[in-house]
Write a structure and sequence with these properties.
By secondary structure, the protein is mainly alpha-helical. It folds into 2 domains: 1-59, no CATH class; 62-99, no CATH class. It has 3 helices and 2 strands. Strands 1-2 form a two-stranded antiparallel sheet.
Length: 99
């Protein structure tokens, strides 16, 4: 699980690092007012980027366990860990409700 968590953190870092450059090249590529040569160069540079710098490669996983299903985006942890931490009152402002 630790390998999965480290990989996800690395992908998030790479995306953040190259986000601006990818966005600029995509704008140049879609704008038909630019010359074909310039758009072709933008396409070549865009294809040179690693696939891990893309937003679609990032997966929401639990930062505590590495679980990839039922993740709460606000806390970035799975429902199971959220329930455990809420019952122990480790998350401020959140408590487990019981009847």
């Amino acid at each position: 699980m630790k390998k999965k968590i480290k990989k996800n953190i690395k992908q998030r870092y790479l995306f953040k690092q190259f986000e601006k450059n990818r966005f600029i090249y995509k704008i140049i590529l879609k704008n038909l007012n630019f010359q074909k040569d310039l758009r072709g160069q933008a396409l070549q540079r865009l294809l040179r980027f690693s696939k891990n710098t893309s937003l679609t490669r990032i997966k929401n996983i639990c930062f505590l366990t590495g679980r990839s299903r039922s993740i709460y985006r606000l806390f970035k942890i799975s429902r199971i860990q959220l329930r455990k931490l809420a019952s122990k009152a480790c998350i401020p402002g959140l408590s487990k409700y019981s009847w």
